[in-house]
Amino acid sequence: MRIVVPPFPFDDDATFDSFSKNAAIVFKKPTQDGVHIEDVKEVNGQWLVAGTSGVVLIVVGLGTTMKQAQTQVYSRIKIF
Fold it and tell me: Where would you tag: which of 34, 40, 45, 79 has the fewest CB atoms within 10 A of its CB?
């Protein structure tokens, strides 16, 4: 599952630059298994949106069924 910042998807660089570029991201807990930091960077102890994709996290769930994988990914997202 992608965790993104608005506007997503975008086709207007000016809008992305004014609303999302270098926006602060708050992580309540350290990253864990299945949670992958994407287009963000840490500057002076603060996480900021970097790059131009607007994707800040990719969260993955695994299971023997799709339902189990969905349950795991949603439980991983809840902690953030």
Answer: 45
Strand segments (E) across the chain: 2-4, 24-25, 35-37, 40-43, 46-49, 55-59
Q: Would you state the pLDDT for residue 25?
A: 65
Place of tokens 């994407």: 38
Residue/partner pairs of 60-66 with CB below 8 Å, 24 or more apart: 60/1, 60/34, 60/35, 60/36, 61/1, 61/34, 62/34
Q: What length does the chain have?
A: 80
Summarised one tens digit per residue, pLDDT across range 48-71 is 888 778 888 889 999 999 999 999
Q: Which two tokens stand for residue 4?
A: 């993104």
Instruction: Name beta bridge partners: 42.
Output: 47
